[in-house]
Design a protein that fits this description.
Helices cover 77% and strands 0% of the residues. It is built from four helices and no strands.
Length: 145
């Protein structure tokens, strides 16, 4: 048996190395989703600033619709990335609980209603987009449109 390796691919030390790599990849995915979510907020702020400047320069209240649409678009995009982040976090938690399991998947857990509500009720969504929507509604009502 000179040609055979004495270490099997599922030996505990190899399995632990694979699990550490899996957790690292899950952490990277979580970090990317958080970054994408922050980028959505940054882009939303930039677009809204441009819309407000154009609206003030032109004196047209119709640009409030553009602000509302932009806020909806970036809010939905941010919400999507937040749901993915929550799902990847749950995958990470599950992977850490089963450290010596041979499952090495890097996919988020299946989406559920709890993920949807957890993301929808997060402070990240409510405290950022809530005031923006309120300002859009106030601008629309004040414009007399």
């Amino acid at each position: 048996m000179a040609g055979k390796s004495s270490v099997s691919p599922t030996a505990p030390d190899k399995l632990l190395d694979l699990k550490i790599a899996q957790l690292s990849m899950l952490q990277n995915a979580i970090g990317r989703m958080a970054g994408y979510s922050a980028n959505a907020k940054n882009y939303c702020t930039t677009v809204l600033a441009a819309v407000v400047a154009l609206s003030a320069q032109s004196g047209s209240a119709r640009l409030v619709y553009g602000a509302f649409v932009a806020t909806m678009f970036f809010g939905v995009l941010d919400f999507y990335y937040l749901i993915l982040e929550v799902r990847f976090r749950e995958s990470y938690t599950s992977a850490t609980a089963q450290l010596y399991d041979s499952d090495i998947s890097i996919t988020p857990v299946k989406a559920s209603r709890t993920h949807f509500f957890k993301a929808a009720c997060s402070a990240s969504i409510l405290l950022f987009y809530g005031p923006i929507f309120a300002a859009c509604v106030a601008a629309y009502l004040l414009s007399g449109a």
